[in-house]
Design a protein that fits this description.
The longest helix has 12 residues. The chain has 2 domains: 114 residues, Rossmann fold; 140 residues, Rossmann fold (3-Layer(aba) Sandwich), CATH 3.40.50. It has 10 helices and 11 strands. The chain has 273 residues and is an alpha/beta fold.
Length: 273
């Protein structure tokens, strides 16, 4: 079975490399393109006043990449400002990208590798014991329009504890633009569903696939591997006949695919939470 990794680049290629070392036939087929914000001035402004913030919550590796790519050369990360990540992938991006800017690893708050889910709900218990009264917190995210699509639930929790929460857009998302080779790969997957599996780490990616990149395609014979219950629910709504739940790590993906490869596909029945 060929696994199609639909994350945006460069994340897709990084995942493909890891999955191949674990013995999977993985191919990158991004469904989302990432670009910088139309107006980088708000990012520059936050860097200039970063000492006033208690927390920056980065929603994805792309949020990390673009926030630090747009850092003014004379700005460094303040010692009193925390960084939060919903999962290890974003935390690794911080470790790889942010250290040169002065961010120390003890300032990064993230669920452990063994967490059941990597999301805002899992991150919140690590934050709620801190004093948020009057503190400034920022959600660093991206969107497909000129507005920030932050983690609304986490923002609500912080506000309930007295924090002042602001969302900042650091990148733009849009449907991917496939090369002829990628178009051929997608076509092969639709023509031979039993030999392919779609790995989804974003509900928006599913929307791009079904609404923009391959509209009118039926998916009842296709298999989706979803890294969160909400994404699994979106795949079911899109018509995928088989939906497999997995944690968003390469090792978990390999383990989840073993029953599928032997024909014993587990159809996920979890409700989103």
């Amino acid at each position: 079975m060929r696994l199609l990794v639909t994350r945006p680049e460069p994340q897709a290629s990084a995942w493909v490399e890891q999955l191949r070392t674990l013995g999977l036939d993985a191919q990158a087929l991004p469904l989302i393109d990432i670009q910088g914000p139309n107006d980088p001035a708000p990012v520059h402004a936050l860097w200039r006043h970063l000492h006033q913030a208690r927390l920056l919550m980065f929603v994805s590796p792309s949020a990390v990449e673009w926030f630090f790519r747009l850092r003014p050369a004379d700005c460094l990360w303040p010692a009193q400002t925390l960084a939060a990540a919903p999962g290890p992938g974003t935390a690794r991006a911080l470790a790889q990208t942010a250290l040169d800017a002065g961010l120390a690893l003890p300032q990064v708050i993230c669920p452990g590798e063994d967490a059941a889910q990597f999301d805002s709900e899992t991150l919140w218990p690590l934050l709620q014991a801190l004093d948020w009264q009057g503190q400034a917190a920022w959600t660093i995210s991206g969107g497909d329009r000129q507005d920030a699509k932050g983690r609304a639930w986490l923002s609500q929790q912080l506000r309930s504890r007295g924090a002042q929460v602001t969302s900042l857009l650091t990148y733009q998302r849009s449907a991917a633009h496939w090369s002829p080779e990628q178009q051929a790969l997608a076509l092969a997957a639709t023509q031979n569903p039993p030999d392919h599996c779609w790995l989804f780490s974003s509900s928006e990616a599913i929307d791009h696939l079904t609404d923009t990149l391959m509209p009118g395609q039926t998916w009842q014979n296709a298999t989706a591997l979803a890294t969160h219950p909400r994404i699994a629910e979106r795949a079911r709504l899109a018509g995928f006949g088989q939906v497999i739940a997995t944690r968003p790590t390469p090792e978990a993906v390999v383990a989840a695919l073993r029953p599928a490869k032997s024909g014993l596909v587990h159809v996920d029945t979890m409700n989103p939470s």
